[in-house]
Each structure stands twice: as C-alpha cells, then as structure tokens.
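thread: overnight batch results

M.L. [08:02]
morning all. the overnight job finished for the chain we discussed friday. pasting input first so we're all looking at the same thing
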Amino acid sequence: MKEKISLTELQLMIRDSLYLSLPGFYWVIAEISEIKDNYAGHCYLELIEKDPDEKNIRSRIKAIIWNSRYGFVKSFFENFTGESLRAGIKILVKAKIEYHEIYGLSLVITDIDPSYTMGEMAARRQQILKKLEEEGVVNMNKEVDFPWVPRRIAVISSRNAAGYTDFIKHLAGNTFGYKFYTWLAETPMQGNETEEGVINALDKIAENIGLFDVVAIIRGGGSQTDLSWFDNYNIAFYITQYPIPVITGIGHEKDLSVTDIVAHKSLKTPTAVADFLIECMINAEEHLTDLSSEIAERSKLIFEISKQRLDSCRLKLIPLARVMISEIKEELSGSIIDMINIGKGYILKAGLLPANHKTRLVPAARSFLVINDSELARKKEILINASGSLISSFNNKVAQSESSLKILDPVNVLKRGFTITSLNGQILKSFCQVRIDDLISTKFCDGEVGSKVVERLKGLKGYKKH
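M.L. [08:03]
and the structure it wrote out:
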C-alpha cells in the first residue's frame, strides 16, 4: 500500500520544492488586470499576459505589494510616469515566488521599473502608427478641406471636465464678437470606456454631419500615461475615415498620442483649440477684407482701362465716322439723281396712260349706265308693287284692330248690360274690397246710382257652376 499524506503536507512539499527550484527574485513583465488597496496598506493585484492579438489571456497570477514597500514603490512610479498604477498598463516588476497552503501561488512584488512602462507605451504607439502607415490612412483626415469659417463645432468631451468648460468660455468670450455654435457628444475621456465612448460619439455626429464644420476632441490636463487611452488603433482609424476635419486638444505638452497624429490639427490644450478656431475666423475675416480691397482695386483698374479704351476708340471713330458720312452723302446724292430720272420716266409714261384709259372708259361707262338704268327701272316696279301689297295688308290689320277696340270700349260694354262699381273713385274687382255700410257707386250706360252695403255674401246665390 502506498504511503498516505495529508493535504497540508502536500502543500508544504509543493512550497518547499518551489523555493528550492525557484529561489531569489525575478524581473517579470505583465499587465495589471485588477488592483486593490487593502485597509491595512497592502496592495493586491492580478497580473495577466495576453496573446499577441491582445484578446485571449495566456496566463494569470495573483500578486501583492506589502505595505512596507507599497508606499515607496507607488510614489516612485507615479513621480516618474505621472500616472498611478491602474488596470490596463504593462509593468516590469521585481518579485519572488510565494506559495501558501491556503492562498495558493502568488508573487510578492518588491520593486517596479517605471521606465519599462513608458517605453512599452511608446513602442505600442509606434506599432499602431506603423500599421496605419501600412494601410495608407495616416494623413487622410489632414487631406480633408478645412472650412474657411469653422463656426459649427461638434465637441467630444466630458461635460464636467475643466478643459471643456475652459473651451466653451474661451470661445464665448472672444474679444472679436465671433459667434460659435457648439454641440457636446459627451463621453468618458479616460479609462477602459474611452475607446467605445469616443467612437459612439463620432457615430452620433456622423448621423447629422451636415450640421457641423469640424469635430473637436478635448479634455483637461492629465498624467503622461493618460495618453495611452488615445494611443488606440480603432479611435485613430475611425478619425482617418472621418468626412470633416478633427481637431484634438487632449492636454499634453510633451508627447503626441496616435489620435493627435492622425487628426487634421493637433493642439496642446482645449483653450489652444479655441484660440485656433478664433484665429481661423480672424484669418477668414482678413481674407474677406483683402478680397474686398482687391476687388475694389481691380474694379478701379478695369474702369480706368475701359475709359482709356473708350477715349481711344472715340478718337479713332470720329474721322472714320466723317469718312462714312461723306461716303453715305455721295451715295444718297447719286440715289436722288437716279430717283429723279426714274420719276421723270414714270411721269412721262403716266401722261400717256390716262389718254389711253380715257378712250376705253367712256364707252364702257355708257354701256354700264344703260344696263344700270334698265335694272333700276325693273327694281322700281317691283318695289311699287310690293309696297302696295304691304300697305293693303296693314290697312286690313288696322281695320280689325279698330273693330276690336270698339267692342272693348267701356261705353259699348255698358250698353250690353254690364256695370262698373266703384268705392271712393276706385273700381271694385272683388267683394273683399267692401265693408258693411260702405257707400258704393254703380255706373250704367245711361246713368249712375249710389248704394249702401248692408250684407256681404261670398259667391252668387242661385248661380250654378257648370
């Protein structure tokens, strides 16, 4: 039967074997995945190594910096790099291997080389730039035409960043009175969310690209290694493809990030970006003033040249006009003589023509008069006959009308037994026009009687309608 050992004994055997096989300290390159400060002053880290594609993790280990060393290491690193220890940066650490039967394998860090971190960032920046150069896109945004009057500005920044506030105040308070229109696409400007935030902001601006002249990516000052958030291939490539100029003011005096390098214009601070935009407006105004002056000068020159040409043409045209007038006079004189001669010929011919026409017209006129006299006599006879018939017809109609009028004469109507009844001189046509006790007058053919109404009866008694 094989010898049995406890778990603790196995762990101790592993620890002793590790200490014997891997004694002393090792300089280890790794990336910080997680970092936490303990209440007791210790620093706990998780270190990783990624594949060359920067996506998959090849290895992982826990690490610790005891409080006795952490204060010194942290202070030295921050003073050298201007950056705090944080997740996402690569470091070169001096560490020894430690194995604990409860907590397992870990590294105890005693020192960190800050120059490696700085050099690694620079190397990574160069690697990104080389890739962009190989793709031929580094200068694409620089080749985009810059507007003469950059007034409509899309800003990518954090709303609470001091750099953004300074930028807006600087634009609004310019002493020239230029008006700028800004729109903020808010996004984190450091940390792991920087890449996604900046690209999303660029996408939002691109949806309304016609509303903007330029894009300004700005943030306040920060540590030297804060540049690493903008040493980003995806952000840089996106900017190279952007259809309008991108200006950066990320806030570093010494180095340029990859984002700065591919942008149309790179400036050190947000206020420097504002100054640049104001200067562009000044240049545009000066250019317009120069153009106005140049147009005025050229107009004066053109006017003077035109005036000289007119004067020259006038001097040349006067003798030419005189010559032409003389030639035209001669032509007119010749034409007048020709017309006189032609007129004389026509007059001579005209004197002969009337005599010939007269001999022809006299007999023709006589013949025409004879024919017309005959026609007039015939039409006169027709008109007399037609007039007699028409007068006879009219006489018959008049006689008929006189007979009808005699029949309708009121005197004749009264003689036939009819009467005319009136009230106060008004002829009555209906019994409705009279009232009881009214005095009415009835006229006959041979006299007139007066009556008093004592009764009103509707209709005629004894009258039977057939």
